Amino acid sequence: MNINPIANGPERAIIEDMLDRNREALIETARGLSEVDARRRLVASLTTPISLLKHAAAAERIWFQRFWAGLDESDCDGYSRRDVGTFAVTDDESLADVIAEFERASRRSRAIAARFDLDDTKENPREGIVSMRWTLLLMIQEFARHAGHGDILREQIDKPLA
Fold first, then answer.
1. How far is Cα of residue 157 from the mean position of the Cα atoms in its chain?
2. Complete domains list, the chain, with CATH
């Protein structure tokens, strides 16, 4: 991760840097875990370190590939239906696979987002008219929240309570 954040300058550069920092923060919550620890369920929901990354990859596909690029499900680089199993990780997916999936989806999201101005808008059935700026800020919020979840899970895994 770039240790020098973009804190002043063009709005787009600041927003994209903040999004990339939150993407990396989410990855870091799981990096180095064993396969068993990456799948440890420490809360009642399906939230595990690996499932947070799986969900984040789906969010990238939902918002950038499906919504902004208008790609059909078959043209996306993975399963991308909104709210349908986005936290589900199969037994044959390793942590490295899921990190790579998230990184791949993030690269594709960057390329798609670059084709739009921040003020470009589209109609979303759930949210109404949304701008690219709003979408990028939504992803910052989404990944910051989940990085926080990941931090808590990682703390429980690394230092279990007595």
1. 21
2. 11-157 (1.20.120.450)
